[in-house]
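Figure S7 source data.
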Amino acid sequence: MENKRPEWTSYLSFIFATVGSAVGLGNIWRFPYIMGENGGAVFLIVYLVMISLVCAVPLCMELAMGKIYKSCPISVYEKINPKFKPLGYLCFITPILIQAFYYVVGGWILNYLWIFITNSSVNDFSAYFQTLSANPFLSYLFTLLFLIMAAIFPYFGINKGIEKANNIIMPLFGIMLIALVICALNLSGAKEGLLFMFHPDFTKLTPKMFLAALGQALFTLSIGMGIMITYGSYLKKDVDVKKSAYTLIFFDTLVAVLAGMIIFPIVFSTGIEPTSGAKLVFISLPQIFSMLPFSSFFAVVFFFLLFFAAITSGISLFETSVSCFVDYYKFKRNKASVLTFLIIALLSLPASLSFGLLSDFKIFDKTYFDFLDYITSNMFMPFGTLMVCIIAGYFAKNVADEAFSNSKYGRFLTFLLKYVIPLIFIYVLITGLN
Ligand code: PHE
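Tokens for the predicted phenylalanine complex:
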């Protein structure tokens, strides 16, 4: 007899799990620095429009697809129409490719956490980061450690593993986030930081800002790769998809804004520019932490925040792969987890060597790590999101009806789904490829 499909035991568990997936490195380091580059408060306004109108719609569609068809992305697309199965395969492949590089960053976070907890004395974080990322043994060891942590919860299943992890981690995450905001607001640059974030200067509005805001919203919501289909597939029948999507967007945005309220006061207090990418989190910030009051508290809590953010996203990525093996290929959950583990362990090896041994190994002029990041963020995710909109808008009307039935606002969103949003994503794909 087939086992009954698991369901989230409560609405709160589902919200914790989806917020856990959405809240990741994107909220804590990417959002503040993109906001910094794009003029502060005006960007926030553009971002709110993009996330609540443009990205909310495919998010609703993915959750509704999962809720209706109750299966992994491959089977969901197959059930809609066997012709769409390749899109399911795309949702199978994208999370695997993302995990192959995301866990390397997760490994660095674990390593930093270790340094700060053990109070190791590092004076020059630039040199430290260089050595860590170029050291093949250390880099891969910590990648594997992070992978084990992301794998263990899906191994134990939805209720005994994933739900338990998120129900503990997310409240802790919230408390730590608020604690750091309070510390940051006591710094000398707090007022300037807040003004930068919340006092819009409309002369700074540029067309480029819309694309940056959309890219950020897409990345942070984890859409376009079947994660929300998978998490939606464990939903109970009576849950309102549209309300859930907006609840998720609310919390995800709140975390990003609170992260900004930590970073900008630090930046304005110390006069150091937030440099982009890995450097901000692994070089500039640790360097700055040592200059702050309660520096070791700040550093440990900050890296715990990053770790919690990254691990709950990792769990959702891992679960999406496992669910494809379980629902489509009919593996048992424990075997599916081990197989996923082995695949990621293999694919993440070259990514963990991309900053050392394999730094000269290039695919289309990019290291293996950068190549995976590029094809997933610039091609697979926007393409996957575009296809979700086209399928829900034109081929599976029941999906749009499930989420948007009968309300005026729902009809407005259906209009956006069919006529506006696909065009926006086609534009994103074209410009993103340049
Ligand atoms: N949403 C995560 C973040 O904001 C990133 C992520 C993307 C996680 C895709 C899983 C899948 O960092």
